[in-house]
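Page 47, continued from p. 46.
Same chain as before, 322 aa.
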Amino acid sequence: MTAPSPSTFIERSLSSLLAFTRTFEQGSFTRAAKSLRLTPAAVSRAVGRLEESLGVMLFRRTTRALQPTAEGRAYYAKCSAALALLGEAERDVQRGREEVRGLVRLSLPITLGLHVILPRLEGIHAQLPRVELEIHITNQNVDFVREGVDLAVRMGTLKDATLIARKLGDFSLGVFASKDYLASRAPLKQLEDLSAHECITFVMPRTGRVLPWIFASPNVEVAPTSSLRCVEDPRAGVVLAKAGLGLFQTYHFMVQDELASGALVEVLRSRGGRTRPFSLIRPRAAVTSKAVRAVAELIVASVAAKAPEARAEMSRELPALF
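Result:
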């Protein structure tokens, strides 16, 4: 086989290189095709053309698995670095090497997004005057590829290997009610007393299930029964609690103003101390722009400044987002 000239090979192979690297990262033609918005057959053919041009097998194919060969692993190391450099070169030409600019699509949960992150981004225009920020407020999990999202903040522990996360912190929970409500109901001193109270609950959009209440000393979960359930926006639970309609478990950062004014008081404090984690996440395979990195840094800084309980997490040795 006569090897093509370098320039001819590059012209013919850039699309095949992308198909190969994505297949290597995703572990299958099907998953690679989905991320590239192609058919599995098209990705398989592109990788086959690349193997034919190189004169080597990059993957061992069986009916059950797709395994990279030694040549494939070595070739991926070079290709991924080369594609990253090409992407960086393109961004530098388009945006200017010294200026951070571009569109960043950010998905935030209602709770941490509205109460912690967005209020602390007041200086974003001064720091990043050429960055356009498109903010999606939702508690639904996002499809990064289909929805074109660059960064997302989500509750819980990351289990998706195609994503990389930077933990922002663990945020404390409490149970809150109005003074008028508590004055009209039976005393509330232990968890068993919850059965005599109206518990306002939140329905998780992804599963349709009621989010359980969690307590410490010892660690337990409670699934309170209730005739008042909030869907999509947990802020409705705060409003209902302020109106004297029942108890509501939520994050302390969501009710700081209500606690300060006396509109709400915390109950069952001896059983407090439980938290839920939030993380900033992005696709592992994506090549991030300067604008995305700059916005991510602002988010990390905003959480550390706004939420004291998160600061201990910020100082620990945690996985880097980039």
